[in-house]
Amino acid sequence: MKLKNLFTNDRAVSPVIGVILMVAITVILAAVIGTFVIGLGDDIGSTTPSASVDASPGDGLDDFEADETLVTFTHRSGDSISADNLDVVGSFNTSNIDVEKDISQGTFNAGRTLDANATEASDELEAGDTVSLIFDDGDRSTTLKTYEFTESDVSS
Predict the structure, then answer these.
(1) CA–CA separation, 115 vs 57, rounded Å?
(2) Which of 2, 73, 130, 154 is the most buried (most CB within 10 A)?
(3) Is the Cβ–Cβ distance between 114 and 101 less than 8 Å?
(4) How many whole angstroms separate alpha carbon 77 and alpha carbon 52?
(5) Binning pLDDT at 50, 70 and 90, where does residue 24 land?
(6) What are the phi and psi torsion angles at 106 (to 5°)?
(7) Phi and psi of 69, rounded to 5°?
């Protein structure tokens, strides 16, 4: 065998590269098809809404009564959310206060507000009590914003 022919003969390179490319394509296709068969691809496009929400304390918390606005949530930007998919939940340390949402329009979108009103309040608010705005459509749930009352919010 001539040494010169060894360096100039490159006929075997093309089949090797072809086999490597075919194996790589097969692995990639198997991975993509496998994710959809297992169900990992089903959740594409079903994410919770992305919205920027601010929260501020309601007026008159120093002389707190039932049917008073505890927290006002303001939608700053992001996805529009149906009011049917929103809930307001209070977490109170020692107080017995129920909260409900009050929104005049059916959609909570940029520029709109949602009030969290107290119902059947039998106690005063305390620092550390919270009110949360929650998105829940039955399949997905997330807390959009939580407001925690400070000492200055609840002191007379």
Answers:
(1) 10
(2) 73
(3) yes
(4) 5
(5) very high
(6) -80, -10
(7) -75, 120
Q: Compute the average pLDDT of residues 8-18.
A: 71
Please state, in angstroms and as integers, the Cα–Cα distance from residue 132 to each residue in 71, 126, 141, following that order: 9, 16, 12
Cβ neighbourhood burial of 103 (10 Å; 0-12, 13-18, 19+): middle
The three-state secondary structure class of 128 is coil
At 39-57, the pLDDT tens digits run: 765 555 557 788 889 998 8
Bigger pLDDT: 149 or 28? Answer: 28
Residues 130, 90 contacting (CB under 8 angstroms): yes
- Give the chain's largest Cα–Cα span: 103
Beta bridge partners of 88: 133
Alpha carbon distance 69, 57 (integer Å): 8
Residue 47 DSSP code: P
